Amino acid sequence: MKKKIIGIFVCILLITICVLPVCGAMSESDLKKSSLSPGDYLRFMFFGMRPRSYRIHIPPSYDGSTPVPLVLVLHGFPGCAKAMLYVGMNAEADEEGFIAVYPNGHTPRLSTLLVTLQQTLRSLIIGGGGFIYNCWDFDNVDDVGFIRTLIETLQTTLEINSSRIYITGFSGGALMTYRLGAELSDIVAAIAPVAGSIGGMWPYQLGPRLPLYIIPEPEHPLPVIAFNGMNDSDVPYNGIYDNGDWWLISVNDSVSFWVEHNQCDPNPQINISESGNIIKKTYSNGSLGTEVVLYTVVDGYHGWFGAPGPRDKYPCEISATDLIWEFFESHPKP
């Protein structure tokens, strides 16, 4: 057993040594305005005694002379940063001139290491760039602190418009997006969760069993645009209640949380598409000009609606990526 543990440690050490020089790890000397040219990069940093990583896409228009918006895109569970490239945010960044960053979550527990080591090696070989079995934590790992530090690092190394920092995410990444909106409302301008909820109690396979978790009250008002499908079986539209193992806050309760916090008009403007499949509710007139928008896809499943990539199993008449950027562009931080 001891030899097996040592062997695993050696494998991880070799992977780290081999990958860091190729991908360009961040060091203390890098904490100055960098001369990164447009393109795609994989970066590493240490936070909370853990190696953390993220992908960064710099659009062709970036020349380092003008501050540009920043959009963080959070993957679901289990997943990795590379898995989110299918949503088309890089193409959106190239067209609109913002920087897109894809943080990796952490490997949830050592007991999964043997199971995922083979997947990790395969991921590295084919260009995945890290563990593909990652999650966002709500208890034992300070992922909120990691994201705050990541944003500060990016602001130090790149020309970032501090009034235009945005976060979006899918599934487990959407749950984390809600939490980051609540806890980082001092620096984030708006959020866009896709297929998410403001809280719940996770089943065993999603990590250590925790008490019912609901995001805390944010310090500042924050614009929110959310997307949910009525046929989503992973994050059910009406939530999950009265189940000792699994509890999830509904979409309506999640939206109401932000409507009340932002002091928006509780009576939304409702727009329904000609097909009847897309229902848009807009809660406006909130504090500091905030609003909350909910897109409901009546026949929608658990996915990123209108994603242009190969994982677009369920074609949709809207593009969540386009609508998210339109919303972000209209909501700089006051």
- How far the N terminus sits from the C terminus, by CA atoms, comes to 57 Å
Broad CATH class: Alpha Beta
Please report the number of helical segments.
7
Mind telling me the C-alpha Rg?
A: 20 Å
Task: Provide the helix percentage.
Answer: 25-40%
Fill in the CATH topology.
Rossmann fold
Using the alpha-carbon principal axes, give the shape. globular
Average pLDDT across residues?
Answer: 81
Strand composition percent = 15-25%
Taking the sheet with the most strands, its summary is: 10 strands, mixed
Strand order of the largest sheet: 1-2-4-3-5-6-9-13-12-11
Please identify, by name, the CATH architecture: 3-Layer(aba) Sandwich
Q: If you had to describe this structure to a student in words, what would you say it looks like?
A:
The model is unreliable at 2-31, 110-116, 118-133 and 204-208 (pLDDT under 50). The chain has 334 residues and is of the alpha/beta class. A hairpin with a 5-residue loop joins strand 11 and strand 12. The protein contains 7 helices and 13 strands. The protein is globular.
